[in-house]
Amino acid sequence: MLRVEHVMGMPVSLDLADDLPIERLEHLADETFAWLREVDARFSTYKMDSEVTRLAQGTLRVEACSADLRHVLDRCADLWRQTEGYFDVYATGALDPSGYVKGWAVQVASDRLAAAGSTNHCLNAGGDIAVRGGPRPGEPWRIGIRHPFQPLAVCWILAVSDAAVATSGTYERGGHVLDPHTGQPAQDLCSVTVVGQDLGTADAYATAAVAMGLKGLDWLATLDHQESAAVTQDGRAFRSDALPLA
After folding, report:
1. How far apart are CA 135 and CA 84, in angstroms?
2. 145 burial level (CB within 10 Å; 0-12, 13-18, 19+)
3. pTM (2 decimals)?
């Protein structure tokens, strides 16, 4: 069963490939999208009544925030240290944990689906993808990584099961990824994909690598249990040896 809804400002698709009654699949999809709408209401930087907005404006104290928001802030602080400050929720000058929240929310949704009995699903939120099992018995999910210069083409096709795939880049929204150390838009890497086990972490790592520029290529190679691929602004392509290609 495939369902697509517009959540968090983007189309989100959920493909449930489990051999379960349709009523059960519909219920699982309902719960998944309800969770993503809850995350959007709490973490959106565009909603004036969201927790993130109120915290940024000083009308809400950290101690009064939800457990989810406190968890996200703690995890983002850890990622700031792990990435030498290149993943920074204050890169734009105001609190914006979006670079972690989307991947984290999708990962939580996937974990909840698995706990509820869905061992074969693909949840895709704007290129941040969590998968379990496969579309058919014995088959992995095939994930195309978009070519940054050719919208209808792909650079790589991945074959993954029980994995997280996150892509960050400058090819759609321009210079929205900033180098926190200079305040200038990142330019050298136009697309970075990270494949790991936790989507929030993979998402943050991909964003950090884009912010680093060309030295992000060497930094990606130091990461344990993460595979990666990148395309530079001048059209060169790089990938780790163990990237799970189809």
Report:
1. 38
2. buried
3. 0.95
Do the beta carbons of residue 17 and residue 28 sit within 8 Å? no
Instruction: Name 178's bridge partners.
Output: 185
User: Cβ-count burial of 202 within 10 angstroms (0-12 exposed, 13-18 middle, 19+ buried)?
Assistant: buried
**What sections of the chain are H helices per DSSP?**
22-43, 51-57, 67-82, 98-115, 199-212, 215-221
Q: What gap in Å lies between CA 147 and CA 180, rounded to an integer?
A: 26
89-122 pLDDT, tens digit each: 999 899 999 999 999 999 999 999 999 999 999 9
At 162, which amino acid appears? D
As a whole number of angstroms, the distance between CA 50 and CA 39 comes to: 10
> Please, which residues bridge with residue 158 across strands?
143, 245
- Cα–Cα distance for residue pair 162/140, rounded to 1 Å: 9
